[in-house]
Amino acid sequence: MRNKLLLSISLISMLSFSGAYAADTEKKTATECGDVTIAEMNWKSASLTAHIDKFILTNGYDCKVEMVPGGTEAIGTSMVEKGEPDIAPELWANAMKEAIDKGVAEKRLRYAGKSLSDGGEEGFWVPKYMVDENPKMATIEGVIENAKLFTHPEDKSKSAFYGCPAGWNCEISSGHLFKALKLGDANFDLVDPGSAAGLDGSIARAFERKIPWFGYYWAPTAILGKYEMVKVDFGSGIDKEEFLNCTSSKDCKDPKVTMYPPSLVTTVTTEGFAIRAPEAFDYLSKRSFTNADMNVVLAWMEENQADGEVAMEHYLEENEAAWTAWVSEDVATKVKKALKAL
């Protein structure tokens, strides 16, 4: 009898321990997201997306989020080589496709989904009012023939081509295409605008004064939503292999002319994050914006001088139908509650 009693007590203890362990395991699994680092890239749409991800992951998935600032090349390289940060919400993959694909193949990185469902657009642009006056200005031949119209802001003897801000990955491609198109031979000088704000300001000033402007830009952006621009046709079509293997490569010695291919704008995570937080990863795989929707938010940001964090709150409050489709009903409830508490 004594032995049976001891056996019963042992079984009860084991069952209690097993139940407690299972409950504890279940609890850990539900909050496995843990510490998460998110890249906040240095342009508005990427900053907005990063803050949306931070708010939803923090309040909906119990993640402890830290933001990491940086540009495309620096963040992409760090993710491939160091596994940090965990998430790049808006990575223009064409710029580093070979390196990112290698990271995915080696199971260090994982593509979550398209950050911009329509893809990104890059090119060299002129104001539409120039093309309305002279349709040939929509071609690179027309631009070169009329190079003297594009007055340099500091050197009146030169013509100005506004390039991508220094430190951005598009600085490489725009510089190579400047060389391939032989714009230097046409007396153009590649002007570094210093920042996105500097580039935007140069366009805004041109439109205010209705003067010529020629340079690099991309979409979706508030600027191209606000000001009518025309993408200059190089007459070359798109050579995707040339762009990937040379135009976008720092080591390219002899770039050829090609139009920019549509950019895959994707969310990339580390493999470790995808494995330990599958529900959060699933959210990232569904979170996507159309260019039209993003342009609207970016225009609002510009009009209200709002940063990514302020725009995040505006977006989530005004677009509930869109973002609740990315998450479960339980997560949506948590995020709504957190929004009301702001």
TrEMBL record:
Stretches assigned to the ABC-type glycine betaine transport system substrate-binding domain: 35-318
List keywords of the entry alphabetically. Signal
Q: Which CDD domains match?
A: PBP2_HisX_like
Is the keyword Signal in the record?
yes
Residues spanning the signal sequence:
1-22
Q: Name one GO cellular component term.
A: ATP-binding cassette (ABC) transporter complex
Question: Which is an annotated GO molecular function term of this record?
Answer: transmembrane transporter activity
Q: What protein name is recorded for this chain?
A: ABC transporter substrate-binding protein
